[in-house]
Every structure is written in C-alpha cells, then in structure tokens.
Amino acid sequence: MDGDVPRKDEDTHVRVGAADVLAAQARLRRYLSATPLHHAERFGCWLKLENLQRTGSYKVRGALNALLAARERGDTRPVIAASAGNHAQGLAWAAYRLGQQAITVMPRCAPETKVAGVAHWGATVRLHGDSYDEAKAFAHELALQNDYRLLSAFDDPDVIAGQGTVGLEMAALAPDVVLVPIGGGGLAAGVALAMKAQGVRIVGAQVEGVDSMARALKGDTRAIEPVASLADGVRVKEPGHLTRKLLTDLLDDVVIVREAELRETVVRLALEEHVIAEGAGALALAAGRRVAGKRKCAVVSGGNLDAGVLATLLSEVRPRAPRRPRRRQRELAAPLQEPAIAMLLPVPTMPSDPTPAPRPRAAVAAWH
C-alpha cells in the first residue's frame, strides 16, 4: 500500500498504512464518539474540536488503539509512557477502561492540570526531568528493568493509526487543506495517511524555536533543545523516525508560527469562538492565517489549559480586531430579503396627490 512505512519492533516487522487507520476506527468506535466540526467564521476556517475529546485531547485515540491492538496480539504487559501530559492522560483513561496497569513518566514542568488528569484515572505518575526527552529516557530505563511495554507518544504504528482516525472524521467535510500541529509527528502522519489519497493538502504547524520536525525534513537532524513555549505539548527535541519517513512523502508544507501569534490565537479562540484550547491546540489555527484554501480545516488538538495560564493570557494579550469580512459577489447580486415581519404588514404606497397618510389605527386593524 502506498505510504506504508516499515518498522522493526522487537521480533516483528510491522507496517503502518491507511488500512491500519481504518482498523483503528473499527476498534475505537465502541469507546469514543466523533468530535464535532465547527466553522470559525472570523478565522475563515473550520475547526476539528479534539479539545472536546475524552481527556481533552486527541491523544486518547492512539493510546487506546495501541492497548486494544496489543490485546489482540496477546500482549498484556503493563504499559509505560513518557509524556508532557496529554499522551499520559490518554493512556491512563484507556488503561482504566480496559482494566490494565499503566505507568506514566512526566517532566516536572508538566502542567498541573495534566498531572491531575493522569492521577484521576488511576495510573501511576512518576515526575522526572525538566523536559519530555529526559522523561522519555527515564521511561525507557524503567521499561528495560521491569519488562514493561514502552509506548511512544508518537513513534508507534498503533499510535499513528489511532491518531489517523481524526482524519477519517474530517473526510465528510471534504476540505482542500488540513492544518495539523506537529511535535513528534504522530497526529500529522496519521491524518496524512487517512486523507492524502483524497487529494487534500496536509500542512503542519510548529512554533519558532520548537521546530525539530521542520528541520529534520530539510535534513537537519541535530538534537537542539527547544525553547520555552506556550505550546508545551509539541516541545520535542527529536521527532519520530517513523513519522519523519511518513511526512517526508505525505506532508505538503510546514508553517512556523511566532509565539506572539500563538498567544493571540489562544485568546481569540476563547473570546470570539468560545473554544478553550491549550497552546499546542491553537497552533494549527495560528498557522492557517498564512495558508490559502477554499475550505480549510484546522485540528484543535487539545484543551487542557491551566486556568492560571488562561487568566494571564486574557489579562496580557490584546488581540487585534479581525478584518471586516468581504461581501461575496453572489451576495451582492442577490436581491435583499425583507424581514419576516415586514411580509405581514401592509406595504405603504406613496400617493400621487398630497393626501394624509393613513392613521396607525388602520395599520393595527390590518393585523386582525
């Protein structure tokens, strides 16, 4: 199948492709409902509201699909994962639903909202390191010592296939451009697998200074420490190897967003569209301002934003007023429609001679 990428995973040789996304959709349908599509008219863009997903993020799709697929293969080992928050929450919820043991390693700087969300579903939480990559190294060490299954947040075929179900749910909209945030690349790779055959342009979004995938796709594979960003969910030093291979073939472009643009987009989403999105969740929409398309759709990937951070943003960021919308030609050409109530009232006519206008009482009588 076109777009399939081979992977060596222990003793098995695994491929991930569009068929795996369809299989993931069949598995997840019993547990997860489709998230809504919302037209953000002031942005001129449709939104796929994954912030309304279980645990507040699309990540639960990949985690749940990975656990279900492993169970089909007879692998019932405890699962461990490193995460900045959303993957850990998704894994915790999935393990709770399936009655499995899950361990999550999160960096000490992880938002309190996300740490509390993981603990709520009964998963074991280990805080280690000051970045996702340090947490990832510690999780790998624990997996080797205890024979846990290490589940990558993005560089795993089952995870990629699960995230791709976001794309299948957007297919009914028939978009010409889909905008996706990129950290390690799992969501972008899955969506690209699901939608590329339909002729949809797939555009990734990263933050300035947090752009490891964009650099890797250009051949720069240096592990550079990402800068601090509101988009903590995409702060990855090294992107996935599987995802990079997929995106090399399937991704049309990557847009680099400035931090100020991202902060403004989070505030505008809250004030104008009444949508609460975390930094990474608003990233694709922020990139959409630079991408042309007749029917654009941006994935709002998560909404797990600390209340204190949101309060600070609302007090500090003053978004620019949106441009006045252009009136479409067909709207100008169409005759003006009378208000519904005007259709009920008698239409006054201008007499040819200067006779007095009828009294209001006559107009009232016409109602009866």
Automatic annotation (TrEMBL):
An MF annotation (GO) of this entry: L-serine ammonia-lyase activity
UniProt record, GO biological process: isoleucine biosynthetic process; L-serine catabolic process; L-threonine catabolic process
Biased composition (Pro residues): 348-359
Keywords assigned: Lyase, Pyridoxal phosphate
Listed Gene3D superfamilies: 3.40.50.1100
EC annotation from Swiss-Prot or TrEMBL: 4.3.1.19
Cofactor(s) needed for function: pyridoxal 5'-phosphate
Annotated stretches, region: Disordered: 346-368
Domain Tryptophan synthase beta chain-like PALP: 33-300
Family per similarity comment: Belongs to the serine/threonine dehydratase family.
Protein name according to UniProt: Threonine dehydratase
Native organism: Marilutibacter penaei
